[in-house]
Amino acid sequence: MTTEVDSPASPAAGAAAVARRSRRRTHAVLVHTVQAAVLVVLLGGWQLLVQGDQHAIVLYGLPSGIFDRLRSWVTEGTALGSLGSQIWTTIEEALIGFAIGTVLGIVCGIALGRIRFLSEVFGPFIKVLNAIPRIVLGSVFVLAFGLGLESKILLVIVLVFFGVFFNAFQGTREVDRTFIANASILGASRWQVTRQVVLPSAFTWIIASLHVSFGFALIGAIVGEFLGGYAGLGVLIKNAQGTFDASGVWAAMVIMGVVALIAEWLITRLERRLLRWRPAQLSGPDL
Amino acid sequence: MHAPRSGPPGAAIAMRDVTKQFATEGPEPYTALRDLDLEVAPGEFCAVVGPTGCGKSTTLTLVAGLEQPSAGTVRVHGADVSGITPGVGFMFQTDAILPWKTVLDNVSAGPRFRGVAKGAAVSGARDWIRRVGLSGFEDRYPHQLSGGMRKRVALAQNLINEPRILLMDEPFSALDVQTRAKMSDELLSLWELTRPAVVFVTHDLEEAIALADTVVVLTAGPAATIKARFAIDLPRPRVVQEIRFERRFVDLYQQIWDALRTEVDLAYAQTTRISGEAGA
């Protein structure tokens, strides 16, 4: 986002700029106030509706219970060990799988997008693989590779790969032909065209898929842990579910949410860095 | 058909009996060019004019080696064209400079692609950026430049490779009239520096006469071919904005327009399908 440069040429212009700025600030305060109010109403309503009924507390959990559970996890550790190591286990699975799946997706997408023969041969296979519900593969991986890190990473790779692959493939095919012709005439080899024309151009598509894919990576890691594992947030959730500890399930979800938000922020940073050649986007609400 | 001839030994570009067809959805291929003969001498500035859709751009893609002729031969400096022609520069009608590279990276791209060391490529690029009047804009991205500035970048990007042939496909058509005249003047002075043979495609006859040594008129498509060829004997150096008031310019314009008019009418009738009823 560009910020307006205020260089008041005259007192009148200066006053106008100040007025504009204070209007913007008032607006921002209003937005944040309403947001806080929505949060208070939601959490407060939940607390008030549920807290009188022991039966409902077991079923739905309580905001205060979630907070207590989080505090005890942080101070006393979980049944599986320290909270940090559970979070790190899940993040590690998600990150390794995300990295491998993304790289594979980009490489395969660009290769199939550039080389017609490959896309003719492998197109049908990829369509079939994409059509099956891949989450089920998690069971296969747990059976084949055991309860450790590998089975979760494989599940994450499978979930991440396709989204990135299809975007990289489409992005490769949408590259402006003029850019390719121009680079070729300037002396670029086929590899140089791929590296310096196709890849940067397809990156607008690929980056868009990364936002969604990291969500899939977390889902893959957690579901993998559900299906069988020794450690991680998924196991924590599963245990909490098994002991009728709704607050524990919610607490793990809150932690996942924080992790996802941090990842989203990092990906947006990466996006800004890689796509800084693009003109500033037309402004609208950022979500 | 006559036996294949070879062009005069010195010709920069020699196209002989060139036919170019494109596959279409239907059973019949679309014939863009038929039996086209075109010769351009080294250092000659040749403008190609013709109505819209007559295959002007196709001619350029054949010389550049982006497309292969369906029949006939295309020779550049005596060698048959197969694949991208070496020693050729191409300015496209739309922006073709890479939007994710800065001005400096765009201009130095050609030498870098060709294996020139980074330092040498960058200092060469700075020279060319200065020559096209963009000093100080080296670190800008294309979207931060005006249309005319992007054309200058494209020009520098091509000329840094010192092409012996420069192909230009209505390069200035997207610019406003004043910027266009300025760019034309600058093109001529830059052309004088390295003197490549130029094939300049345009639909603007005034621009063609002001710039070129030779104006070639194409017939209306499909199956376009060369209708006439005119030598432009106006003295150089020329000032594009002023030359059109000269007596000789007006004479030439009338002569060439006589040849072009019937083709333009024909092309217009084809696109609007009014030839039968209106008889215009």
Structure overview:
Chain A: Keywords: Cell membrane, Membrane, Transmembrane, Transmembrane helix, Transport. Chain A: Belongs to the binding-protein-dependent transport system permease family. Chain A: Pfam families: BPD_transp_1 (PF00528). The complex is a heterodimer of chains A (287) and B (280). Chain A has helices at residues 11-50, 54-60, 63-76, 83-114, 116-131, 137-145, 149-173, 177-186, 190-227, 233-242, 246-274. The two termini of chain A are 14 Å apart. The longest helix of chain A is centred in the N-terminal third of the chain and has 40 residues, at 11-50. Chain A is built from eleven helices and no strands. Chain A is mainly alpha-helical and 287 residues long. Residues 1-8 of chain A have low confidence and may be disordered. By secondary structure, chain B is of the alpha/beta class. Chain B has a six-stranded mixed sheet with strand order 6-7-8-3-9-10, with helices on both faces. Chain B has a four-stranded antiparallel sheet with strand order 2-1-4-5, with helices on one face. Residues 1-7 of chain B have low confidence and may be disordered. At the A-B interface, α8 and α9 of A face β6 and α2 of B.
Q: How would you sum up this structure in a few lines?
A:
Chain A is an all-alpha fold. Chain B contains nine helices and ten strands. In chain B, the strands form two sheets. A six-stranded mixed beta sheet of chain B has the order 6-7-8-3-9-10, sandwiched between helices. Chain B has a four-stranded antiparallel beta sheet with strand order 2-1-4-5, covered by helices on one side.
Highlighted features:
heterodimer; A: mainly alpha; flat; B: 280 residues; alpha/beta; 6-stranded mixed sheet; 9 helices; 21% strand; globular; disordered N terminus; MetI-like_sf (chain A); transmembrane (chain A)
